[in-house]
């Protein structure tokens, strides 16, 4: 059974001695960030700030800031076990007979029971605020040059007006005043797609923002789910349990019942966009000012004693580094399903999720690496990857040293580089245009003569297995 609330997760972390409580008054203006940044760089514990300045609501932060805590949040011991489960599911072949189908049911039948469940009463609606005032929440001003205070760990819930399908994305919200925030969804994101559909229909778009809820849903809101998989179903699968949902009070949307705080409201596509930013982002740089839609809050509901979950992003490694690594491992089986020659993939932390990706492949024909580059750029959010480095299957892409060793030795700058124009992440400030520019792929595989290699590539230096085994056997006594 999964973890259904932030409170339950905090209790688990305390039991595991992986959480600390700060009773001293700490200012939400910069001070929380400085403390959390140091903890992230030192691989420290999760934190509860019990006495944030100006608010009586405690802050929970760095909840997901380690591999161990990510595993605990998803109820697993090893992320590779969950990745293997996804691989098994994506490898199912249709049964050829009723008997084969019956044999598959014990293993895969429960998949069809992982879905949301509607309830009438919910902890997130224990209190309905009479006066809407976002300033009562302990919202962080993270970095000195930020444009203001930002809600940084929201599950932003919208609905596709054509299919009525719910989407849960994570988009930062700059607080403008007591009742309005910015809505920083990039054009490539599903929330922005739903916004454009509402604009075409000429009507306001209802939006709900959930703070807290099942940790698996918080993670799912950050994940690049493919079009056939919504975040709520994905979170239910991760939990191996149903997520309880409740109807909002002022809008026609459902929200996670176990959330801490719910903001109900709307975005009006006919309204003029408003300047938002700057914001100290996960790139380690400030994303600059730009114009985005305005979110109008029409109601705030909450628990009797809520906890405010949040996150600080900045130069990696930060808390989101560990969330990104889980995304990499869980979505690798889906990538392999579409591009089966892929062996492994790594989004190194210095690449901040979209600047670099290392890929190892089973090379079978000339220019195979460039085929893989093109295929990756055609996969959902992978279209935003600026640099792709492809290596042979025997290279460990989880080791930056191994990849760059092959890169330096194997790549001819003229022959082995592919440059294409295409979409780029909105946070990429290096491109000549916003949202688009050049991307590069590097073929660091062993090159063959029928793909332009004029000379043979030499083999790697490797010791014989017999000598290695002999030295292994004597190693512990060798230096006595």
What does this structure look like?
This protein has helices at 6-15, 31-41, 67-73, 79-90, 98-108, 190-201, 215-222, 231-239, 319-338, 368-377, 400-410, 465-478; strands spanning 19-22, 46-49, 59-61, 117-119, 127-128, 150-151, 155-159, 166-169, 173-174, 180-182, 205-212, 244-247, 254-256, 259-267, 274-276, 279-280, 286-287, 290-292, 294-302, 308-309, 342-346, 356-361, 387-392, 417-423, 436-443. It is of the alpha+beta class and 480 residues long. It folds into two domains: 85-309, Pnp Oxidase, Chain A (Roll), CATH 2.30.110; 339-451, UbiD C-terminal domain-like. Strands 5, 7, 8, 10, 11, 14 and 19 form a seven-stranded antiparallel β-sheet that branches. A hairpin with a 6-residue loop joins β7 and β8 (166-169). α4 packs parallel to α9 (319-338) and α7 crosses α8 (231-239). The radius of gyration is 24 Å and the shape is globular.
Sheet/helix structural class: alpha+beta
CATH superfamily of the largest domain: Electron Transport, Fmn-binding Protein, Chain A
General form: globular
Uncertain ranges: none
Strand content: 15-25%
Helix content: 25-40%
Quaternary organisation: single chain
| Rg for CA atoms | 24 Å
When the domains are counted, the total is 2
CATH top level of the largest domain is Mainly Beta
Major sheet details: 7 strands, antiparallel
* Mean of all residue-level pLDDT scores: 92
Distance, first to last CA: 52 Å
Number of strands: 25
Total helices: the number is 12
Q: What's the CATH architecture name of the largest domain? A: Roll
CATH fold-level topology of the largest domain: Pnp Oxidase, Chain A
């Amino acid at each position: 059974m999964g973890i259904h609330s932030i409170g339950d997760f905090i209790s688990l972390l305390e039991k595991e001695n992986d959480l600390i409580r700060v009773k001293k008054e700490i200012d939400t203006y910069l001070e929380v960030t400085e403390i959390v940044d140091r903890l992230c760089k030192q691989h420290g514990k999760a934190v509860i700030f019990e006495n944030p300045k100006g608010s009586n609501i405690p802050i929970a932060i760095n909840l997901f800031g380690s591999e161990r805590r990510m595993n605990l949040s998803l109820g697993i011991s090893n992320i590779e076990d969950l990745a293997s489960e996804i691989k098994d599911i994506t490898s199912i072949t249709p049964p050829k007979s009723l008997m084969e189908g019956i044999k598959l049911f014990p293993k895969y039948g429960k998949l069809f029971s992982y879905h949301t469940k509607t309830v009438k009463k919910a902890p997130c609606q224990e209190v309905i605020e009479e006066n809407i005032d976002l300033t009562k929440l302990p919202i962080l001003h993270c970095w000195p040059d930020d444009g203001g205070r930002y809600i940084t760990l929201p599950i932003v819930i919208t609905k596709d007006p054509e299919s009525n399908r719910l989407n849960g994305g994570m988009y930062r919200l700059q607080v403008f005043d007591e009742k309005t925030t910015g809505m920083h969804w990039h054009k490539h994101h599903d929330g922005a797609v739903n916004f454009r559909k509402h604009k075409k229909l000429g009507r306001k778009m209802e939006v709900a923002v959930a703070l807290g809820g099942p940790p698996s849903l918080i993670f799912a809101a950050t994940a690049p789910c493919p079009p056939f998989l919504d975040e709520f179903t994905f979170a239910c699968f991760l939990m191996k349990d149903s997520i309880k949902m409740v109807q909002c009070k002022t809008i026609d949307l459902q929200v996670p019942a176990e959330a801490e705080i719910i903001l109900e409201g709307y975005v009006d596509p006919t309204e003029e966009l408003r300047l938002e930013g700057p914001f100290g982002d996960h790139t380690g740089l400030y994303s600059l000012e730009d114009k985005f839609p305005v979110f109008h809050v029409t109601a705030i509901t909450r628990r009797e004693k809520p906890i405010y979950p949040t996150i600080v992003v900045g130069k990696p490694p930060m808390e989101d580094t560990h969330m990104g690594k889980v995304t990499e491992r869980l979505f690798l089986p889906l990538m392999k399903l579409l591009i089966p020659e892929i062996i492994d993939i790594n989004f190194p932390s210095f690449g901040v999720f979209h600047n670099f990706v290392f890929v190892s492949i089973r090379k079978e024909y000339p220019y195979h690496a460039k085929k893989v580059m093109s295929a990756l750029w055609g996969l959902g959010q992978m279209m935003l990857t600026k640099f792709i480095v492809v290596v042979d299957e025997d290279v460990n892409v989880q080791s930056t040293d191994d990849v760059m060793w092959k890169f330096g030795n194997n790549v001819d700058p003229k022959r082995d580089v592919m440059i294409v124009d295409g979409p780029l992440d909105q946070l990429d400030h290096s491109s000549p245009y916003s949202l688009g520019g050049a991307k590069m792929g590097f073929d660091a595989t062993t090159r063959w003569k029928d793909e332009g290699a004029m000379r043979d590539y030499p083999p790697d230096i490797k010791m014989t297995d017999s000598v290695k085994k002999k030295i292994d056997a004597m190693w512990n006594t060798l230096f006595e």
